[in-house]
Amino acid sequence: MTSDRGRDRRTVAVIGGGVSGLTAAFLLKNAGVTVTVLEGSPRLGGKLLVSEVGGVAVDAGAEALLARRPEGVGLIGELGLSGELQAPGTAAAGIWTRGRIRPLPRRQFMGVPADFDELAATGILSGDGVMRARQDLSLPDSAHDGDESVASRVGGRFGAEVVDRLVEPLLGGVYAGRCEDLSFEATLPALAQAGRGRRSLTQAAARLLPPEPLPDQAAAPVPPVFTTLTDGLGTLPAALAQASGADILTNAMVRELARTATGWRLTVGSAHEPQQLEADAVIIAVPGRPASRLLADVAGTVAAALGEIRYASMAIITLVYPEAAFGAAVTGSGFLVPAVDERAIKAVTFSTVKWPHLRRSGTGLHIVRCSVGRLGEEAVLQRDDAELAALAAADLGEATGVQGDPVDVRVTRWGGGLPQYNVGHLDRVARIRAGVAVLPGLAVCGAAYDGVGIPACISTARLAVDQVLAYLGSQDMSVLNR
Predict the structure, then answer these.
(1) 157/139 Cα distance (integer angstroms)
(2) How far apart are CA 137 and CA 135, in angstroms?
C-alpha cells in the first residue's frame, strides 16, 4: 500500500464501508480528490445485506427507509435508481399484547397517542391504563431541566402502560433499547420540539400528524412513510461503491490513526504485516467503539465520549411458509411485541404483504421476518440458529395460528449493531463533534450520531464531506497565498 499523494490532487481516506462511508465516497467523486475506502470486514454494506431465501432476494438487514426524509430517496435519485423504488402495499400494523394482535392506533406518533377514544377501542391498554393516559390533558406542566429518559417524560404524562405497550415496542424496533435508558430528546426529537411550550404531549403528537378530515370530506391521500428497492436495500452499497469511483479495499482493518506534519497516517492490516497509507483528510465512518480505539492516541476526550455509546445486538430470522399454512389471508404489514409480554420475538413483518413486489415470482410463498433481541437480552441470542428459528416460529404460530414448519429459514445476526441513544446523547455528540472540529482534516459520520436510519446516516455523511472539503479548500488557498 503506497501513499500516492501529490499537491495537485488531495487524498481522502474513508474508514468504514457501510452506507455512511460509501455515501461519503460517492459525494466526494466530483470534488477533485482521490478517495480510498477501507473496510475491515470481507464485504461492504454494514447493516445492509440482501440474500436469497425461498428463492427470492430479501433483505437480511435494514429493509426500508423513510420516504418522507429527502436524503435517502434523493441519493437513490442521484444514483439513477428512482425507478427501482417500491411503495409498501399496506401501512397497517398491530401490537401483539393482552392475548391477541390488536391494531396500532392510527392517531399516534411513535406510540404517543393523539386520540384517546381510538386508543381505548384497540384494547392495547387496560381500562385503568386508558384512564391514566387521559390525564395528560389535565396534568400540570412539569419542569424539564435537561434531558430525561423516554420512560420518565412519556410515562410521567401518560403512565407506564403507554410506555410499556405502545412506545417501547415502536422504539424497540428502531433501537432495541430500553425506554428507561433512551433519551427523549434524541430518540423523539420531533415530539420534543413540538412539545416545547405545550403542557400536553397528546396535543404535541397531534400537531405532527395529518389533520383529520371533516365529516363531509374524503381523507386526503397520504404518501407512503417507507420505501425500499426492488432487489432490496442491500443492493444500495454496491451501487454507491460503483458510482463513487473510489479505490475500495475490503479486509483492510485500520488499526492506528496518527497525525503527521501534513495530514494523517493510517496503519492498515495485521500486526505482523502492517501497511501504511497517508491522506490529507480522513472520514471515520465506523461505530462508536472502533472509532474510539482509533482516536485514543489522537483525541482522548473524543475517544472517551465515543466509548460511552452502548450497542445492542439482535438477530433477524426470516421464515418462508406456503400460503396455505396461514389459513385465512394475511393482512397488515406485521406486528410489534412489548417487552413486558416476555416473548422471544419483538417484531414481525409479513414481507410479502408489506412489499407486494416480492410476490411477483409467483412462488405462492409467504415470507415472514422476525426480529429477536433487545439490550439486556443477550442470552436468547446465544442459542444456535436452529433454536432461534424454532423460538421465532413458535411465537409466530401462537400469534397467527400458522400451521406446519417453514419451508426455508435464514438467520442473520447483528452483533452490536444498534447504537443506544441514552440520556445525554445529544450532549455527548456535541462533545464529540467539538473535539473532532479542532483536528485538521478529520470528520466522523454514521449511525452513532443523529439517527440510525439510512437517511440520517446519509445526512451525517454529507456533513462530514462538507467539513473535509472546507478544510481541503482552506489548505489549497493557504498554498496559493504564500
Answers:
(1) 7
(2) 5
Compute the average pLDDT of residues 408-425: 97
Q: Which residue has the higher pLDDT, 358 or 361?
A: 358
Quick: pLDDT tens for 128-157: 999 999 999 999 987 677 899 999 999 999
Query: Does a structural domain hold residue 52?
Result: no
Domain membership flag for residue 200: yes
Positive or negative, the CA dihedral 152, 65, 390, 165 is: positive
Task: Name the helix (H) or strand (E) containing 467.
Answer: helix 454-480
**Both 125 and 170 in a single domain?**
yes
Amino acid 247: pLDDT: 98
Q: How many CB atoms lie within 10 A of CB 73?
A: 19
Per-residue pLDDT averaged across 178-203, rounded? 95
Sheet strands side by side (includes 100-103): 100-103, 93-97, 334-336, 345-350, 365-372, 311-322, 408-419
Same domain for 437 and 383: no
H helices then E strands: how many in the chain? 18, 22
- The string over 91-112, giving b where at least 16 C-beta atoms fall within 10 Å of a residue's C-beta and e elsewhere, is eebbbbbeeebbbbbebbbbbb
- Please identify, among 376, 394, 419, the residue that sits at the C-terminal boundary of a domain: 419
* pLDDT for res 362: 66
Q: How many CB atoms lie within 10 A of CB 215?
A: 5
Q: Which residue has the cell 456533513?
A: 463
Query: Are the C-beta atoms of 229 and 81 separated by less than 8 Å?
Result: yes
Q: Report the residue count for the chain.
A: 482
* Same-domain status, 409 and 429: no
| Helices (H), ranges, 229-287 | 236-244
pLDDT at 477 over 70: no
Domain end: 401, 419, 437, which one?
419
Q: Is 329 exposed, middle or buried (0-12, 13-18, 19+ CB in 10 A)?
A: exposed
Q: Name which residue leads in pLDDT, 480 or 10.
A: 10
Query: Are 319 and 305 contained in the same domain?
Result: no
Total domain count, the chain: 3
What CATH number should be reported for the domain holding residue 174? 1.10.3110.10
Confidence (pTM): 0.94
Q: What is the pLDDT of residue 224?
A: 86
Domain-embedded: residue 220: no
CATH of the domain at 389: 3.90.660.20
User: Are 295 and 443 part of one and the same domain?
Assistant: yes
Which has the closest alpha carbon to 15: 239, 243, 255, 237? 255
